[in-house]
Amino acid sequence: MINDKKVLFSGMQATGNLTLGNYLGALKNWVALSDEYECFYCVVDEHSITVRQDPATLRRRARALLTLYIAAGLDPEKNCIYYQSHVSGHAELAWILNCFTYMGELNRMTQFKDKAAKHADNINAGLFTYPVLMAADILLYQADVVPVGIDQKQHLEITRDIAMRFNSLYGETFTIPEPYIGKAGAKIMSLQSPDKKMSKSDENPNASIYLMDDPDTILRKCKRAVTDSEGCICYRDEQPGVKNLLNIYSACTGKTPEEAVAEFSGKGYGELKMAVGEAVVSQLRPLQEEVARLEKDKAYIDRIIKDNAEKAAYYANKTLRKVQRKVGFPDRIR
């Protein structure tokens, strides 16, 4: 615990462009957590290079993501917002934890199998040991809680297993993290395939609304959203496209799905799509304006990057030095 608060760790990869789903389902909800927890929000750039990246693009996207964190309302004075690559403890602890993780455990990771299938020409060791670096990310800050989606649940389980294994060998060293179960964020699905989540890696440009899309683009994507031939605006699983549009509308307006259904009673899909598009534009406008303002203040963002990297490194090194001593590494001469 830090300052008598439990510690929460989370992060997003610095690849692709964040979607409306990332914002409504996670980022927007993070803002409320800083009063209850000591929060570490990482721009996950080390994980990003398991897939080949253009260096200039990765640097640009990492800074854009950090700026988005702040623009979304995460106060960098209350939350530690930093680049993973700026804290060497992540990689150092990952190497140690690699030596306490079994091949069989990593072989069972479904995300490795999925990514290996997508990137068959680059099945690298980093892709395989990705969960160990993720464990290091979490354990480095003695995180009590970690917000996880279904696709990350397996990674938190292996993190717990590694931590308990180390603790049983060397005594209490790591806090055993628990999944953070908070208020469920809006589950936003693809506009073109409403049976799957909206994704920043979707190859169909009309499937996802990106946080920095201009109003015309947002309206166009909503107009092209998949619905069905029933012609009835109902909130039910049998109409996944319509249900998704209602979820987006509800998340952006604060209305319940039932209130939204009542509002569109007797209206057609065209009117629903237009209203959803306008609601999304209104939701994202303040965020986009704040991003534009922050991007002009280079000195401020640079200071946040420097100060928060130092803060993160301070807490990371406290754990790292303890671990290094327990495994038998020589003490550092000061």
Structure, described:
The chain is mostly helical and 334 residues long. It has helices at residues 20-30, 55-71, 89-98, 103-107, 110-118, 125-139, 153-170, 215-223, 240-253, 257-263, 269-296, 298-327, and strands at residues 6-13, 37-44, 80-83, 145-147, 178-180. The strands form two sheets. It has a three-stranded parallel β-sheet with strand order 1-2-3. β4 (145-147), α7 and β5 (178-180) form a beta-alpha-beta unit. α6 crosses α7 (153-170), α8 runs antiparallel to α11 and α9 packs across α10. The radius of gyration is 21 Å and the shape is globular. The protein starts with 5 loop residues before the first strand and ends in a 7-residue tail after the last helix.
The oligomeric status of these chains comes to single chain
Weakly predicted, low-confidence segments: none
Average pLDDT taken over every residue: 92
What is Rg?
21 Å
Q: Structural class of the secondary elements?
A: mainly alpha
The number of strands is 5
End-to-end separation in angstroms reads 27 Å
**Could you name the CATH class of the largest domain?**
Alpha Beta
The total domain count is 2
Q: Strand fraction band?
A: 5-15%
> In the CATH hierarchy, what is the superfamily of the largest domain?
HUPs
Q: Could you spell the SSE succession in H and E letters?
A: EHEHEHHHHEHEHHHHH
The rough form would be described as: globular
Spatial order of strands in the largest sheet: 1-2-3
Please summarize the sheet with the most strands: 3 strands, parallel
Number of helices: 12
By CATH, the architecture of the largest domain is named 3-Layer(aba) Sandwich
